[in-house]
Amino acid sequence: MQFGKVADPGQIDFTLPKDAPETAKVLAAHKTEDPFEVYVGCAKWNRSDLKGFYPRGTKDELTYYAQQFNSIELNATFYKMPDWQQVETWKNKTPEGFKFFPKLTDIISHYKRLIDVKEPVEQFCNAVSAFEEKLGMAFLQLHDNFKPKDFERLKGVLQDFPKGIPLGIEVRNEEWFAQKEVSKAFTGLLESLQMANIIVDTAGRRDMLHMRLTSPVAFVRYVGANHPTDIDRLNDWVTRIKKWRKEGLQKLYFFVHQNVEKESPLLASHFIAELNKAFKLSLALPAKQATQKSMFDE
Questions:
Q1: Domain topology for 9-297
Q2: In this structure, which of 9, 86, 281, 284 has its CB flanked by the most CB atoms within 10 Å?
Q3: What are the CB-based long-range contacts (under 8 Å, 24+) for 2-6?
């Protein structure tokens, strides 16, 4: 992922900001004794990006990937509208308990810019509903230049979004975070609709670390910088998630990207190991291949 990439990550203050005051209130309102649901994965499964991740002789990349991780942030659906048959094929290649997190197609978010999108939204939702129990949460990523002046357009689409498909929202334009009244209206809408306010942790856009949860679900898209600070950043996330869990967090969806994706499985594996220790979980750890070399091994 190139979004938020900087020339020198060592110059960035990666400290996680304090939570928005409303976050603790949201979590407290939904606090239960239910088990903590945790899904950690990468954004892609194709061999060309995850170099060294697949053993020689791997015949099907998704089948192998799904044996290593319990989820995938499905960006393939952003570039091409999925159909029911394709979704069923993906679903049948994965084991019980695996979940997909498909991104809404760019026709909806980037080309039509949420104008007259009832038909493509229904087409998308009909397709991903074929994931059935393996559907985690769909997410809508808005264009960098989609600004709060079009809030009412976004509001209408979200209010009409099919209720049977869980949804997270990622806004990117700086105005959503810089203007307090705008941020309040946006997060209030998501809270009323029980939709997740996606957090993005990337070097060049620290404003997207809003730390404002709008439901008892934390959906985090973490972008490593191919830099030694990546490990400390993940460790800091474990500390913050422990705090949220005590306050009432029910579900964690955490997806690891990098500017150069080759080390994403290694970072995700480290994060899973730390979560297992922190929460006494038994999430499977991905197998490290002999060819999977990290800059941290050098």
A1: TIM Barrel (3.20.20)
A2: 9
A3: 2/259, 3/172, 3/200, 3/202, 3/205, 3/223, 4/200, 4/202, 4/203, 4/204, 4/205, 4/208, 4/223, 5/202, 5/203, 5/204, 5/225, 5/259, 6/203, 6/204, 6/225
3-state helix, strand and coil shares in percent for the chain, rounded to the nearest 5: 45, 15, 40
Q: Which helix (H) or strand (E) holds 159?
A: helix 151-160
| In contact, 212 and 23? CB cutoff 8 Å | yes
Buried b (16+ CB within 10 A) or exposed e, 6-24: eeebeebebeeeebbebbb
Q: What is the pLDDT along the chain (298 residues), one digit of tens a residue?
A: 667 688 888 889 999 999 999 999 999 999 999 999 999 999 889 888 787 899 999 999 999 999 999 999 999 999 999 999 999 999 999 999 999 999 999 999 999 999 999 999 999 999 999 999 999 999 999 999 999 999 999 999 999 999 999 999 999 999 999 999 999 999 999 999 999 999 999 999 999 999 999 999 999 999 998 888 999 999 999 999 999 999 999 999 999 988 776 788 999 999 999 999 999 999 999 987 544 555 445 4
Each domain of the chain, given as residue ranges in start order, spans 9-297
- Alpha-carbon span 143 to 198, nearest angstrom: 14
- To the question of pTM greater than 0.90 for the whole model, the response is yes
Where helices occur in 205-295 by DSSP H, the ranges are 229-247, 264-279
